Amino acid sequence: VIHGGAQSMPYAYDTNLKSSEATLTLVFARNWTAQGVTALSFWFRGGSTNAAERMYVALANRTGAPAAAYYGEVNATRSAGWTRWVIPLQTFADLGVNLADVDRIVIGFGTKGNTTAPGGTGKMYFDDLRLYRPTAP
Known about the structure:
Mean pLDDT: 92
Order of helices and strands: EEEEEEHEE
Number of strands: 8
Largest sheet: 4 strands, antiparallel
Oligomer: single chain
Structural class: mainly beta
């Protein structure tokens, strides 16, 4: 199951009394303001048998908690076709992330930090994660 290239990232989520996250800690902190980049973009797909859950992307600095941007459609996890999500980096800056020192990126499901609400399970695929300048998206 791919959108572009040779592979995608499959991810099985379980949000029962928790959020479910895939985290990548960058080897070196990255300057996400270099060369005028202004947006983070990736493609995702789920399936009709998935539980409907909120999806979010969070960024963090070495010395800060992740700040999350939530996808607008709660049924995104049930989408059987590839969907592109473009997130303006200013969204994360407005939440306190220093874009010149990005240390971690997280893709998650449910409500970040949830420990009380029941949830569901499903499998998602992610592909073509990229940073864009204003003219490219």
